[in-house]
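## tool: complex_structure
## caller: assistant
## args:
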Amino acid sequence: MLRHGILGLINNGAKTGYEIMTVFRDSLHHFWAAQTSQIYRELRTMERLGWITQTRVPQSGRPDKNVFSITPSGHEELLRWLRDPDMPLKFNNPFLMKTFFMGELPPEENLAFFRAFRDIAVFPDGGKQAALNADMYRQAMDHPEKAIYWKLTIEFGRMYEKMQREWCEYCIHTLEDFQRIMESKKEEEKES
Amino acid sequence: MLRHGILGLINNGAKTGYEIMTVFRDSLHHFWAAQTSQIYRELRTMERLGWITQTRVPQSGRPDKNVFSITPSGHEELLRWLRDPDMPLKFNNPFLMKTFFMGELPPEENLAFFRAFRDIAVFPDGGKQAALNADMYRQAMDHPEKAIYWKLTIEFGRMYEKMQREWCEYCIHTLEDFQRIMESKKEEEKES
DNA sequence: TTAATCATGTAACACGTTACATGATTGC
DNA sequence: GCAATCATGTAACGTGTTACATGATTAA
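## result:
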């Protein structure tokens, strides 16, 4: 998957490993994380597979650039992948894993947890501005037929964030109700 | 994370690797996938760490059971993990990765893709019934203070699924509009 | 009789994370 | 003078996936 993501970026114009890293960091961070170590490893593999070719560009006062370009066979592979209906839908969600076992802690502690989580934002501006770095933004201007899909992924991020906030509110209310019930039970015990 | 999930399950009662596998498959599948190969590996590690102990139970006509129980130090670790604010929030979403590069294909193909995705359901009953297997269900009866949190994770799954469907609808409308604009452009060109 | 369930795992590979290593240039 | 940016990566480890291997019992 990461492999094909990198291939897609190179398809939109030859790039160095460093440039690919910045696109992941600035424009795809809301649905995929990638470290340089992984990017350089995938680039090696893809070169071996013949999907991309490497051109060394000497620079003055800096290390040489390794610019990667897509090959015809790489472009074929990109289309094959896009058309492949096989789609892993699973996602391992560490937050839900914790939630599942929160019964071990008192509700007060868990309430604090949900309140903190509710206030976390992936899109600092509320998702109003496009989450694209300068280079991607320029590309979006030239290729609106591609940028449509980029906007769709940003919209997903925005909707996901909203849903997550709503879920947190729901959890907070559920736990507050639970606390109230427990308190009134205590009162009854006192009276009897 | 998987490690601590398994620890949490064993904390709710001693279990074999097989039983742990069934709980993941039947009750946690909407937020975490785990194969037996991984489960047995984690069990080894956790035994080495002293979080759990293993008891061999001979059976007639079947392989021996390896029943794992939590140790005091394992329970401490469970609480430490639950209280640890460090929370990886990232999720690598293969569906969004594909969406991002769909500009390479004609809108018709992508529309088919989104329509198929919209109709996929993780909760076959629409999420009305609790996604808990028999054993978990029994436990939920005895421990409502734990089951609250189990229900919260199921509610998340339900909300996520709804959001995903709504996003697909949004994508479908966006692409249909795009197609209409492209068609009227063609008409204009014909006329001039 | 065929599939599902109970019950154990291993081996190899693929993918992701963390930490380390180097070094000039540019802007505050 | 210091931090950030540009630019390259490696090593070790941790986690997840796929395929394989075995074999009795039970329900349709």
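## assistant note: Chain B touches chain A through 62 residues (CB under 8 Å). The mean pLDDT of chain B is 89. Handing back to user.
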